[in-house]
Design brief:
Layout lengths: L4 H15 L7 H8 L3 H13 L3 E4 L5 E4 L8 H8 L24 H18 L3 H4 L3 H7 L6 H4 L3
Length: 154
């Protein structure tokens, strides 16, 4: 299974905003930091904003910030919201007919469905706050300043 770049960009945007806890960030900041398409990122941020994960502040000096506490954002929830297709096999889809003759009694389909549920259950155990625990290291990798409360700590 492979997640789409859309979901990847959504998760990276949330990590960026969780690390940039002081002030607002712009879409351009995020796009430049990760070297990703600003146009593609605009679509991602728009959906994250609609879902309440990101708050977009309009006007002069506007930008983006987390719409919820990082502790309240579960990764499984974000993946479910941003992945258009979690159907591992064509026969999982409710919109396409099951072409496989084995479909009525397919053990593979059952096994893969169980694996997908386990994958999402593990992601549900993690929050955005968990992803940014190595805050100092991550901030350094992204060239983000540490908040004043963490700047003097080891």
């Amino acid at each position: 299974m492979r997640l789409s770049s859309y979901t990847d960009y959504a998760l990276r945007t949330l990590v960026f905003l969780a690390l940039k806890s002081d002030g607002l960030a712009t879409i351009n900041d995020v796009a430049q930091t990760y070297d990703i398409s600003k146009n593609h990122l605009m679509k991602v941020v728009h959906q994250l904003s609609q879902l309440g994960y990101v708050e977009a502040v309009r006007g002069r000096g506007g930008g983006l910030r987390l719409g919820r506490n990082a502790e309240d954002i579960r990764l499984g929830e974000v993946v479910r919201a941003t992945e258009q297709e979690l159907d591992i096999l064509e026969c999982f889809s409710s919109t396409s007919p099951a072409l496989c003759r084995l479909n009525p009694t397919c053990v593979l389909k059952s096994a893969l469905k169980e694996a997908l549920q386990a994958f999402l259950a593990v992601l549900d155990d993690y929050t955005l706050a968990d992803l940014v625990k190595p805050r100092r290291t991550l901030a350094g990798l992204l060239d983000l300043p540490l908040p004043a409360s963490l700047a003097g700590t080891a």
